[in-house]
Write a structure and sequence with these properties.
- The protein is mostly helical.
- Helix 1 packs antiparallel against helix 7, helix 2 runs antiparallel to helix 15 and helix 13 packs antiparallel against helix 14.
- It is globular.
């Protein structure tokens, strides 16, 4: 074989290798998108939509239903913290598969639950699944996706939340009475996604030596914490009380509420543009635009009695603003912790959840004392304050450097991530 033939053979092998790598990355992003939709949509949000039918069948009062929801929240926080420790030790695959298994078991138990304790255990497993989901996905993206493409990949994965809301709202809209059958179907979907994750996820996170030493307290962490917590505080206006406002203030029935959630999920699909938008306009701009959309949703809901379309516009604006904001915050966190992307993505989500824990009773008290318009105005003020701290404009473009340059770091990560 002459030199030309040898060169052609090497070129074809390189081309096949490049194609295989791109296919592997697409498979990883697809599986990660599916887990996000599963954990944040089917396992988490379907409960609220199906709660009236669940309460009627199991004869649950409001207090018990609220405690079950709180158990899911506490389990979510525990899952996030557990993922911080588990990802570096066990790798993205093990933690992502654990998330899928918890979702499968939780929703399977939901389908057969005959009492409040069984329902609480099921929702606790679902909450753990949601908490475990995001950190390993960020670590997997850091393993398999080039630095320049990571914001786009993480933004696309975060859009799975919107898809999950849609997938939970559609059957709730059509088959709410058959909630047990729905959860059985959701569990089957979860089992398939779990198998997909086993095949698509890398086995090990990058070794600490390959990543370099991370700063324990990076500059900008306080700003991120304030922004994420205040966004969480304000978001409870819709996540916790939105259905009650639609039902009590606007006389929405269960079907119209499910339709509103479907519109919210459709609006959230805008989040696929979070990464490209942050690259083009800067992460600070996307962060502030997303909070502005959320504030506009509060205003539209406060003014909803004035026009028939305003409640639906409010849900669409909130869905777009909330999920884009989550995407912007996770990109901000990854920029602060480039050597621990699991921590970078998990910390903002934990702070959002803590904000929601604080915000729910505050908004409830404001709703009771001042009424819907003033309570929603208070949520808008919290969003305005959350928009003050912001990341550096082009922070996500700056890949961390180590000895040997970017190529050396990429090679070290590739070796560590693909270890058996």
């Amino acid at each position: 074989m002459d030199n030309r033939q040898t060169g052609n053979a090497v070129g074809r092998a390189g081309s096949r290798g490049h194609t295989d790598m791109r296919a592997g990355r697409a498979n990883l992003v697809g599986a990660s998108f599916a887990l996000t939709a599963l954990a944040y949509g089917l396992a988490r949000f379907a409960y609220g939509l199906l709660l009236p039918q669940i309460r009627a069948d199991l004869e649950l009062d409001t207090v018990v239903a609220g405690w079950i929801g709180s158990a899911a929240f506490a389990a979510y926080c525990a899952g996030v913290v557990a993922a911080f420790f588990a990802v570096p030790r066990s790798g993205p695959r093990a933690v992502a598969v654990a998330s899928g298994l918890c979702a499968t078991l939780g929703m399977g138990l939901m389908a057969v639950a005959g009492s409040a304790p069984a329902l609480g255990l099921a929702m606790g497993l679902a909450g753990i699944s949601t908490g475990l989901a995001s950190p390993p996905l960020a670590a997997a993206v850091a393993c398999r996706v080039p630095a320049s493409d990571r914001p786009r990949a993480n933004g696309a994965i975060n859009a799975g939340t919107a898809a999950g809301i849609i997938l939970s709202a559609l059957p709730a809209l059509a088959f709410a009475e058959a909630w047990r059958d729905l959860y059985l179907g959701f569990a089957a979907i979860a089992a398939v996604v779990t198998l997909w994750l086993w095949r698509a996820m890398p086995g090990h996170a990058p070794e600490a030596a390959a990543q370099g030493k991370a700063r324990a307290w990076p500059r900008g962490l306080v700003a991120l914490s304030i922004a994420a917590a205040l966004m969480g505080v304000a978001s409870t206006a819709i996540w916790t009380f939105g259905a009650d406002i639609l039902r009590q203030d606007l006389d929405f029935d269960d079907e119209r509420i499910a339709l509103a959630w479907l519109i919210m999920g459709a609006g959230g699909l805008l989040s696929v543009a979070t990464g490209p938008g942050a690259n083009r306009f800067g992460l600070a701009a996307i962060h502030r635009v997303s909070l502005t959309l959320m504030a506009l949703s509060m205003a539209a809901l406060a003014a909803a009695p004035l026009a028939e379309l305003l409640p639906h516009a409010a849900m669409g604006l909130f869905g777009a603003g909330y999920i884009v904001s989550c995407g912007a915050l996770l990109l901000w966190g990854i920029a602060l912790f480039p050597h621990r992307p699991d921590l970078g993505i998990g910390l903002p989500f934990l702070l959002i959840a803590i904000g929601q824990m604080i915000g729910a009773p505050l908004f409830g008290a404001a709703l009771e004392a001042a009424g819907t318009p003033l309570a929603l105005a208070g949520a808008g003020v919290a969003l305005a304050v959350a928009a003050i701290p912001a990341p550096a404009r082009n922070r996500i473009r700056n890949a961390p450097r180590t000895r040997g340059g970017l190529a050396g770091r990429a090679k070290a990560q590739e070796t560590a991530c693909h270890a058996p």
